[in-house]
Write a structure and sequence with these properties.
Two copies of one chain form a homodimer. Chain A is α+β, with helices and mostly antiparallel strands. The first copy, chain A, has two domains: 168 residues, Transcription factor LuxR-like, autoinducer-binding domain (Beta-Lactamase, 2-Layer Sandwich), CATH 3.30.450; 61 residues, Orthogonal Bundle (Arc Repressor Mutant, subunit A). Chain A is built from eleven helices and five strands, in the order ααββααβααββααααα. The first copy, chain A, has a five-stranded antiparallel β-sheet with strand order 2-1-5-4-3, with helices on both faces. In chain A, a hairpin with a 5-residue loop joins β4 and β5. In chain A, α1 packs parallel to α7 and α10 crosses α11. Chain A binds a DNA duplex through α8 and α10.
Chain lengths: 248, 248
DNA sequence: CCGCCAACTGTAGGATCCTACAGTTACCCT
DNA sequence: AGGGTAACTGTAGGATCCTACAGTTGGCGG
């Protein structure tokens, strides 16, 4: 792939304005990289127990149905990898794990039946706590597909980032309901010290205000974040990147 | 850059075993991409107020000193960008922001004096809450440098990910002190429901155990994480990725 | 068999948080 | 001048958390 072509694809990703357009540009870049099927999945931590998922599938519909029926999301090694890692996963490395894991073996055998033999998965994590993955797959044997996977590595990683950025724009309403901007500076400050384990009184001493005022700001924070108490506010704020390292 | 050369560099990054080796491989890839200086910086959220930084600098020593003396980390637009974004930052886009911001203008003018005129910064964020950036810079004018920047985009993004992975390995002792594995399944479960805003009693009902037992597990959690109370435990756990979306 | 450890449970007092009450002050923009 | 909003403060009762006390049970490996 030439740098120019790469820039064109990035451009196209940036201009996609709805799900269909995103699907289209994904299909294009999948073909361009020499693969046949793709799937993009994003996870937004609106809740830790039940996160919302945004899936744009270029996999066979039958496979998606089978996948859901079998609850394969809990088995799928690409999902597990991308949830924890930042490096691309070449599916050739999954073979070894499958030995002695009948569940995983079954999954991979089923996947092969639907044309998902070789491929590569790209994870992406944001500072706001949401994450996504893009998988590019082909029915080729692992050996034959390696040159294509190696070549796709740099581009796939970059495309995934741009893709996720576009999804965040298009699905803005389904993403987390508030941003850092919705909390006032004082509210952020109070919340920051709470995440550091300070009590209301300690925080009031640090900020040179009354204990009551700290409580007041934290109350507002809890309400703005749409949560029920401090610990949930802390969880939400950290997951969303509202509270982040201070560079002074 | 050929796919083969790209793979070789990735290989080299993976084999680096200490700071000097990482510095060396960074210098190599910087040259390979057509740039002159680099800097890698990682931030580990051991504390939200005072995160630990790991910096591997291929910038001029004098610039680093000036940068620290002027407390430029709070001004540096590449740091601000990489803290929040997932896409590469082409420095050419910073020009517009500098107008009407004397502090930023001063910073960029100073940077130019040290051979940092054009360049690109690559952010990376992990599921464990730490993040890093790699900047590649050149003394060339923006216009002249564009082809090099465009070409470096995909590779830089990928190298940054591998680089950060290596740093996490080499600096393992300076990274976060505990991993998910250090909390027992029950402890993770209790913590999960706390992050969802459940009270001790509610959690006990969900898990079908006594209120006292939930308190017990959470006590252990607080102790293992080395924090002082529940909110800090929640913050730490979320920042570290111990608590993450459940796929069921 | 014994030690280790995860999981579990009870009581009780003091610390802290949550909620609902009811305001004041200062700044910015229209 | 009036509206909006951030920041600020007080009281008080009930809910919840924290801590220190003192244990039991079951599984696993040496």
């Amino acid at each position: 792939m030439t740098p120019t072509r790469c820039q064109e694809i990035i451009e196209a990703i940036g201009q996609a304005g709805d799900v269909e357009a995103i699907h289209g540009v994904c299909a294009d870049l999948t073909r361009e990289c020499g693969f046949e099927q793709f799937i993009y999945a994003a996870s937004v931590p609106t809740s830790f127990v039940k996160p919302s998922l945004i899936i744009i599938s270029g996999y066979a519909r039958e496979w998606r149905e089978h996948y859901n029926n079998q609850h394969y999301m809990g088995v799928d090694p690409t999902v597990a990898w991308c949830a924890h890692n930042i490096l691309p996963l070449n599916w050739v490395h999954l073979e070894a794990d499958a030995h002695g894991n009948p569940q995983l073996n079954q999954f991979m055998s089923d996947a092969r039946d639907f044309g998902l033999s070789s491929g590569v998965s790209f994870p992406i994590h944001t500072a706001q706590g949401d994450s996504a993955m893009l998988s590019l797959a082909s029915p080729e044997q692992h050996g034959k597909a390696q040159p294509r996977i190696v070549e796709a590595m740099p581009y796939g990683q970059l495309f995934t980032a741009y893709l996720h950025e576009t999804v965040r724009r298009v699905f803005a309403d389904q993403m987390l309901p508030v941003s850092r901007a919705d909390l006032t500076p004082r509210e952020q400050e109070c919340l920051l010290w709470v995440t550091e384990g300070k009590t209301t009184w300690e925080t009031s001493q640090i900020l040179n205000i009354s204990e009551r005022t700290v409580t007041f700001h934290l109350q507002n924070t809890v309400e703005k974040l749409g949560v029920v108490n401090r610990q949930q506010a802390v969880a939400r704020a950290v997951a969303m990147g509202i509270i982040r390292p201070q560079y002074n």
